[in-house]
Amino acid sequence: MADQNPQPPPLPPPPHGVPPPGESWHDPFAPPPRYAYGGPPPKKKRRIWLILLVVFTVVGGGLVTLLFLINLFLSPAGSGGGRIGFGARLGLLRIGGLMMPGDEMDFWIKSLHEMAESNPIRGIVIRIDSPGGAVGSSQEIYETIVNIREQWKKPVYVSMGDVAASGGYYVAAAADQIYSLRGTLTGSIGVIFSKYEIGEAARRLGLDNEVIKSGRFKDAGDIMRPMKDDERDVFQFLIQDAYEQFLEDILRFRREPLQGACDQFDPAEWKDFHLDKPEEATAEAFLRQLADGRVYSGKQALKLGMVDNLGTLKDTLDALARVVHIEGRPEIYEPERKLTLRDLLMSRVDQILPRARTPRLQYLMDLP
User: Which of 118, 137, 138, 166 is the catalytic position?
Assistant: First the structure.
């Protein structure tokens, strides 16, 4: 009788190097196991990464805070580079030469704004050594100083150098205090417009000039012909308007000193200064007597109420430091503009042709 539960045939012996079923052993000569991504899976180090993340967050937050504080207390130094630094200090800006549109003018305005916006700088001294310049440029610096005083509530002092005349005095009149050297040339309050007339010389050379214009005064001031009477009247009317603006802006902050000087003038001094005593002894009437285009020494300007004190640049800085409560020798921040090749070339041209410039309305001392 056949067996009803036949047994399966025995399995063939396993190949060499393969363990029997249900068993495992390590063959030292077997190749290393192969993984789908070329190697064993990386070990997880979640705790280490978590610690590193916390450390970086704390350190990074500290750096952000530090950068914020640096941005709060430090200001760029303008075109000259550098940093203003920490601690209370004074700003010093030097305005020299003619005040005309250009790179230097832009640097002055930008530097004044940067110093006004910088917290460490408590006050600004402007050193002026200028015979004046264009009407618009003088007024722009004047209004910038007024803005610093009224919007930023920072005092502005002026120190006059060799010359601070016409437009130079216009700018100084916006300051809280004006310091002058005894021999400083200042004043020259007035407006000037000048032009060449080369028509006769051009005709001798066989040159002629033809003008096509849209209005009767469009070529007024043409150097190729003499000025007509009505054109001269138009220019005189224009100059008088700019002159009245000059006087108005001086009186804006100098009315009280001028009034005090007028009240203290005696008859002999009116004669010594070649001034006519006005019928009404007001600051405006007194200023109109002074503002006839002449220049004064710093010592005379003090007597006339045009400046507040006699002193050097150091005297001015020390006085302002006391006002803003800086003890000891004040730290000074002075922006400096880097000279370009164009600056060097133009300075040489100005020395050779000092009057080779476009005619324009100017608050300018008439230099010899």
Answer: 166
Domain residue spans in the chain?
87-364
Residue 49 has a pLDDT of 59
Mean pLDDT of 29-51: 57
How much is the pTM? 0.74
Quick one: pLDDT at residue 172?
Answer: 98
Residue 154 annotated as catalytic: no
Q: Report yes or no: 184 and 162 within 8 Å, Cβ to Cβ.
A: yes
Give the single-character DSSP code of 13. Answer: P
Backbone angles phi, psi at 355, to 5 degrees: -110, 10
Task: Classify domain 87-364 at the CATH superfamily level.
Answer: 2-enoyl-CoA Hydratase; Chain A, domain 1 (3.90.226.10)
Q: What pLDDT is attached to residue 17? A: 53
Active site residue 137: no
Question: Which one from 45, 218, 228, 314 is the annotated catalytic residue?
Answer: 218
According to DSSP, residue 206 is labeled T
For 80-117, what is each residue's pLDDT tens digit? Answer: 445 566 689 999 999 999 999 999 999 999 999 999 99
- Tell me the C-alpha distance between 203 and 200, whole Å: 5
Long-range CB contacts for residues 317-324, cutoff 8 Å, separation at least 24: 317/90, 317/92, 317/125, 317/159, 319/157, 319/177, 319/179, 320/90, 320/123, 320/125, 320/155, 320/157, 320/177, 321/90, 321/123, 323/123, 323/155, 324/88, 324/90, 324/122, 324/123, 324/155
End-to-end, the C-alpha distance of the chain in Å comes to 148
Query: Mind listing the pLDDT tens digit for each residue in 158-217?
Result: 999 999 999 999 999 999 999 999 999 999 999 998 888 888 888 889 888 888 999 999
Which residues lie below 8 Å from residue 22, measured CB to CB, with a gap of 6+? none
The C-alpha torsion from 314 through 319 and 323 to 327, rounded to 10°, is 60
Cβ neighbour number for residue 289 with a 10 Å cutoff: 17
Three-class SS state of 289: helix
- Phi-psi category of residue 17: left, alpha or beta, with phi > 0 → left and psi -120 to 50 → alpha: left
Beta bridge partners of 309: 179
With a cut of 90, say whether residue 306 has pLDDT above it.
Answer: yes
